[in-house]
């Protein structure tokens, strides 16, 4: 059912962010707004974000709250459903900023909602940390918007380097949905960087959303004899494409991006043999990852998700800044975030160095025996 258009409320709260200036907060508690899709097609993503946030808040409140200066403050989590809609996300952000007077926003997790909400939060000078919105435009030109994940451009670089350096690929092909910005940009970045490394992109096949017969594309790709085939597409398309690729007998090594981090076991089995890049693996060898993963399993009865881990890290970064600045004022938090140089999270080491976009490692996963297997970390250059 279509939703009648309603005007998006203007976010009125605004403060001049000069480091040391005050913004809005509640003295007795650290109020954090969580913008998350809790219904619709992105509900599973929203559930993961909520789980990561809940674990981070519960841990902070175990000993009476976050220690700011010489006083403990309970962390209060205020969840709002964005319905995966930019308009609804803007309304929710306006309410959290103007009425609930949050000290910071976490989310939204998807770029299409994070971009407009980030602009609005930045105008209001309220810090926003998105866990997993990878589009470079999310933070571009802002002062109070930050992210925990690597960007699409870095992911494209990682995959191009992995194909050339680890797989020894000299010829690459790409099959992508040209009508989707994420797919289109990832394909372009991978192709450009693979060629910069000395490889040849021998086929770039485009299709549009809703297309289901990829066999003509696959025949042209097979004729170009690629060593690797990059599929920066979403789950429904990827599963169909892999079925048709195997039926055609195409032997190229398939590569994918973080969209291949499926949760449905049947879909995971369809990825057998694929390598893909992502943000987090519970199988990574670091002790901090093991501790987090154990507690996540105990609390929620399942493996930690990428979105859950990145959200958890977003809260840990916020806690660190609030503690170091000894302030829960929005202006102080914005300034504190801009001063962060390096941060160690469960999703890896992150170097901010004055940027809202961390340089951080990416995880390469290999699908073997119907399961995601940690393969390696690729560090930024």
Q: Give the N-to-C terminal Cα separation.
A: 48 Å
CATH class of the largest domain: Alpha Beta
Percent range of helical residues: 25-40%
Mean pLDDT across every amino acid position: 90
How many domains comprise the coordinates? 2
Give the beta-strand count: 16
Secondary structure layout plus pairing:
Blueprint: E1 29-36, H1 43-61, E2 66-68, E3 71-81, H2 86-98, E4 104-106, H3 111-124, E5 128-130, E6 145-147, H4 152-166, E7 171-177, H5 181-196, E8 200-207, H6 215-223, E9 228-231, H7 235-248, E10 253-256, H8 265-270, E11 275-278, H9 287-300, H10 306-325, H11 330-339, E12 342-345, E13 348-351, E14 359-360, E15 362-368, E16 371-378
Parallel strand pairs: 1-3, 1-4, 4-5, 5-6, 7-8, 7-9, 9-10, 10-11
Antiparallel strand pairs: 2-3, 11-15, 12-13, 13-14, 15-16
Task: Tag the structure with descriptive keywords.
2 domains; alpha/beta; 22% strand; Rossmann fold
Please summarize what this structure is.
Helices cover 39% and strands 22% of the residues. It has helices at residues 43-61, 86-98, 111-124, 152-166, 181-196, 215-223, 235-248, 265-270, 287-300, 306-325, 330-339, and strands spanning 29-36, 66-68, 71-81, 104-106, 128-130, 145-147, 171-177, 200-207, 228-231, 253-256, 275-278, 342-345, 348-351, 359-360, 362-368, 371-378.
Give structural notes:
The chain is α/β, with parallel strands linked by helices. It has two domains: 29-150 and 286-360, Response regulator (Rossmann fold), CATH 3.40.50.2300; 153-278, Response regulator (Rossmann fold, 3-Layer(aba) Sandwich). Helix content is 39%, strand content 22%. The chain contains eleven helices and 16 strands. It has helices spanning 43-61, 86-98, 111-124, 152-166, 181-196, 215-223, 235-248, 265-270, 287-300, 306-325, 330-339, and strands at 29-36, 66-68, 71-81, 104-106, 128-130, 145-147, 171-177, 200-207, 228-231, 253-256, 275-278, 342-345, 348-351, 359-360, 362-368, 371-378. The strands form three sheets. The chain has a seven-stranded mixed β-sheet, with helices on both faces. Strands 2-3-1-4-5-6 form a six-stranded mixed β-sheet. A three-stranded antiparallel β-sheet has the order 12-13-14, covered by helices on one side. β13 (348-351) and β14 (359-360) form a beta hairpin. α1 packs parallel to α10 (306-325) and α2 (86-98) packs parallel to α3. The longest helix is centred in the last third of the chain and has 20 residues, at 306-325. It is elongated. It starts with 28 loop residues before the first strand and ends with a strand. The model is unreliable at 1-10, 12-17 and 21-26 (pLDDT under 50).
């Amino acid at each position: 059912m279509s939703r009648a258009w309603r005007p998006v409320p203007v976010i009125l709260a605004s403060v001049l962010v000069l480091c040391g200036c005050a913004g809005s907060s509640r003295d007795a508690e650290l109020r954090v707004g969580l913008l998350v899709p809790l219904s619709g097609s992105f509900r599973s993503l929203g559930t993961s974000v909520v789980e990561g946030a809940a674990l981070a808040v519960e841990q902070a409140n175990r000993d009476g709250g976050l220690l700011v200066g010489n006083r403990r403050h309970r962390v209060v989590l205020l969840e709002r459903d964005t319905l995966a809609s930019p308009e609804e996300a803007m309304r929710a952000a306006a309410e959290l900023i103007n009425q609930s007077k949050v000290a910071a926003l976490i989310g939204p997790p998807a770029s299409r909602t994070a971009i407009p909400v980030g602009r609005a939060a930045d105008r209001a000078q309220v810090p926003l940390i998105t866990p997993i919105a990878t589009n470079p435009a999310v933070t571009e030109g802002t002062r109070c918007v930050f992210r925990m994940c690597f960007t699409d451009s870095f992911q494209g670089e990682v995959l191009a380097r992995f194909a050339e350096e680890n797989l020894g690929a000299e010829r690459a092909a790409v099959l992508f949905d040209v009508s989707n910005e994420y797919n289109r940009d990832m394909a372009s970045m991978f192709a450009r960087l693979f060629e910069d490394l000395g490889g040849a992109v021998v086929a770039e096949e485009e299709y549009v959303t809703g297309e289901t017969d990829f066999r003509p594309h696959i025949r042209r790709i097979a004729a170009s004899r690629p060593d690797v085939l990059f599929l920066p597409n979403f789950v429904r398309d990827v599963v169909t494409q892999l079925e048709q690729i195997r039926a055609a007998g195409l032997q190229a090594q398939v590569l994918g991006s973080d969209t291949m981090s499926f949760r449905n076991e049947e879909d995971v089995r369809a990825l057998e043999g694929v390598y893909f890049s992502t943000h987090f693996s519970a199988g990574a060898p670091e002790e901090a990852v093991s501790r987090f993963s154990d507690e996540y399993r105990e609390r929620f009865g399942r493996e930690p998700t990428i979105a859950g881990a990145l959200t958890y890290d977003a809260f840990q970064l916020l806690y660190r800044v609030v503690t170091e600045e000894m302030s829960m004022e929005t202006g102080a938090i914005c300034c504190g975030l801009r001063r962060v140089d390096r941060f160690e999270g469960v999703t890896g080491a992150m170097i901010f160095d004055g940027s809202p976009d961390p340089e951080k490692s990416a995880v390469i996963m290999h699908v073997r025996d119907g399961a995601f297997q940690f393969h390696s970390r690729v560090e930024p250059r």
